[in-house]
Amino acid sequence: MTEAPRRMTKATLMIVEDDALVSMVLQDALEDAGYKVLGLTDRQEAALQVAKAEKPHLALVNISLAGGDDGIELSEHLKAMGIPVLLISGQVNRASSAKSVAIGSMPKPYSAAAMVAAVAYLLALLNGDGSLSCPAQLEVFNDSSFDVAPAA
Questions:
Q1: CA atoms within a 13 Å half-sphere pointing along the CA-CB vector of 73
Q2: Would you put residue 67 in left (φ > 0), alpha (ψ -120 to 50) or beta?
Q3: Where are the alpha helices (DSSP H) in the chain?
Q4: Rounded CA gap, 127 and 46, in Å?
Q5: Is 44 exposed, middle or buried (0-12, 13-18, 19+ CB in 10 A)?
Q6: 30/132 Cα distance (integer angstroms)
Q7: Cα–Cα distance between 149 and 152 in angstroms, integer?
């Protein structure tokens, strides 16, 4: 059986998460699946600097960030830069209210394997490939969000 997460290799991801342990676990799992993960950030300003310099294919953004920064506000900036956002948060109601700035939500708690599957699914959709099954825990927002081409 071919593992779905390995179908999309070399895509660049950005993780913006205030919990260092969660960030490191995600980074390890995503790198093991073949993705390039940019330096981990936990603040909006640092994330915007990384995004401008590196143009990731997908950003995984928590809603509550360090220093009181807001992940939904960050998502608005990233969307304006053409970078799709997957919200990764236990704040399900706030994540669902951010459908205009994110392509989906992965509510906490989630396993690293579930996140790898969600990333593979979203990147495939962004590239016009609808052949993967949507992971059960992933909430995909309006499919019209997918006409935003991934950053080059």
A1: 8
A2: left
A3: 20-32, 44-54, 71-80, 92-96, 112-126
A4: 27
A5: buried
A6: 17
A7: 8
| Tokens standing for residue 101 | 């700035």
d(CA 128, CA 72): 26
How confident is the chain (152 residues) per 10-residue block, as mean pLDDT?
47 94 95 94 92 96 86 93 91 75 91 96 92 93 54 43
H or E element that contains 89: strand 85-89
Which residue in this structure is represented by tokens 């071919």?
2
Looking at residue 116, its amino acid is V
Cα–Cα nearest to 117, from 106, 108, 128: 106
How far, in Å, CA of 50 to CA of 12, rounded?
12
The pair phi, psi for residue 10, each rounded to 5°, is 70, 5
State how far the Cα of 126 lies from the Cα of 147, in Å rounded to an integer: 7
Amino acid identity for residue 122 in this structure = L
